[in-house]
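dumping this here before i forget
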Amino acid sequence: MPHTALNALPPTDVREARSVQQAIMRGFAERCPACGQGKMFRAYLKVVDRCASCGEELHHHRADDAPPYFTILIVAHIIVGGVLSLEQLVAPPDWVQIVIWLPATLLLSLALLPRVKGALVGLQWALRMHGFGGEEDMPVERPMPPELQIGSRGGDRE
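structure:
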């Protein structure tokens, strides 16, 4: 059997278990998912390269578009529920709804975004995704369909 990067990894049962719930909660608190002590962010949404407390490398994360998506999902449910409840209970004029809910939407979004990103980085760390397990991401080899191969006549019929 040829030696590959996957063969060099220790078996999964040898590695210490990482609590997914604890890592998500630490990330949501904007703390290092490994130790819970060091800060996760050096700026509003910039994750530190390495935890100042335990030295865990955090630069591997690949949060991409997930934090804004989940933030919008959470904020929309809260705001829409609030708008509908207030409308049913008091039926205030539209300008009152705007004065209440527009700033609430903005503030809630800005407050939740780094926490949601921290939780997602914590989840990635706990599941050993994107290099958090000690190995680099390996591209998956997928064979090219015959009709897309150069010199192929896969799509031609005689």
